[in-house]
Design a protein that fits this description.
Blueprint lengths: L2 H17 L3 H5 L1 E10 L6 E2 L1 H10 L6 E9 L2 E8 L4 E9 L2 E9 L1
Parallel strand pairs: 1-6
Antiparallel strand pairs: 1-2, 3-4, 4-5, 5-6
Protein name: Nuclear transport factor 2 family protein
InterPro entries: NTF2-like_dom_sf, SnoaL-like
Length: 107
Amino acid sequence: MTEAAARAHITRFNNAVTSGDWSQFIAALHPDAVMTFIGPPIGPFHGRDAIARAYAADPPTDTLKVVDIRSESETDLITFEWSRGGTGTLTLHHAAGQVNALTIRFD
């Protein structure tokens, strides 16, 4: 998509972590979105409702700091640092103005 869209996603995520309100973050996801983790043994989660339930059941406590963003066509690759240490990459795929796939890789 664009760097601005990627940064908006990270802002929604960080706001949700600090406030505990995931509604704006979840609303930006496509109804059929898929969230996959590479590293930790969780997921994948299929559909916006399943993703919402996953965050409600086990909400993250770390915010993300963007290190780099590369955007091409409908895909954003975001390199990040966790607020409490550690790094990773987040790949976002977009369709119809919404995030329809998230892949989170822990380094």
